[in-house]
Design a protein that fits this description.
Length: 260
């Protein structure tokens, strides 16, 4: 069974912008897939739609299954997303941490879907849960900063904390929307390494949108390419070529520029 099934989805915003046009693909458990395409091609919209933060168009036969359960169809987000979301980790370019909270507390928020609401609201975490958060921080290499406020850390460290949050969540699917776009090359590489490590060790299925082609080539075995909201390539990374990326971006993309 595919973990992510995207069937003929389209998205038109109120401004009449067609962000996605009849896109279909499946992703199997354990894959690490790069979603690439020029700015405005629909990558972020697609990730947000799979995470059910946006709904698809009503017209057509568009539907999305996650873990074999229908989470969207006929332009409606189904209530099944509530249970599915527990095992769905989403990582954003802007990290989405609470700046005034420690890294440990930020990571513990990954457990909120897995505990009674009252305990989460009061921030009453068990010792075993705190240990889980510290282990996650250790795995992404920032245990020493666990008590530091998130806002005092570098972008790369904050993004690794966001990944640690998906670890305590036991996320089987990780959707990452341009997670390295605002990082310097060394920090970006470390974040991609961390995602690849979790994909390998925990068998988490990762869909990561990337502007930087070099990271797609280095870390992902499969590439899905969007252009003007349409899927124009879905295949092995090894089947892509510099020529392909030049055509995709409408100009030559070299490594220095890709990590600008
Ligand atoms: P990418 O992530 O590849 O840069 P996006 O998914 O952000 O592309 O955007 C795809 C298209 O949808 C763009 O034309 C963008 O301007 C448009 N778009 C994205 N979000 C909205 C929105 N909330 N309202 C209107 N148009 C939007």
């Amino acid at each position: 069974m595919s973990l992510i099934e995207i069937h003929q989805i389209s998205k038109t915003f109120k401004t009449d912008t067609v962000a996605l046009n009849n896109v279909s693909f499946n992703i199997d458990p354990g894959e690490m897939v790069a979603l690439v395409g020029p700015s405005g091609s629909g990558k972020s919209t697609l990730i947000r739609i799979i995470a059910c933060l946006e709904h698809i168009d009503k017209k057509g036969d568009g539907l999305i299954n996650l873990f074999g359960k229908c989470v969207q169809a006929n332009g409606r987000i189904h209530s099944s997303i509530k249970t599915v979301r527990k095992h769905l980790g989403v990582i954003f370019q802007s990290f989405n941490l609470v700046g005034r909270l420690s890294l440990e507390k930020n990571v513990l928020t990954g457990l909120l879907g897995h505990m009674p609401k009252w305990r989460g609201t009061l921030g009453l975490f068990r010792a075993s849960e705190r240990i889980k958060a510290l282990i996650a921080l250790s795995r992404v290499g920032i245990l020493a900063q666990s008590r530091q406020r998130a806002s005092t850390l570098s972008g790369g460290q904050q993004q690794r904390a966001a990944i640690a949050r998906t670890l305590v969540q036991n996320a089987d699917i990780i959707l990452a929307d341009e997670p390295v776009a605002s990082l310097d090359p060394a920090a970006a590489d470390r974040v991609m390494q961390t995602l690849a490590q979790i994909n390998k060790e925990d068998k988490a299925t990762v869909l990561v949108s990337l502007h930087q082609i070099e990271y797609a080539l280095k870390y992902c075995t499969r590439v899905i390419a969007l252009k003007d909201g349409g899927l124009i390539f879905d295949g092995k990374t090894t089947d892509t070529s510099p020529d392909f990326f030049t055509k995709l971006y409408g100009r030559k993309i070299d490594h220095d520029e890709a990590s600008e």
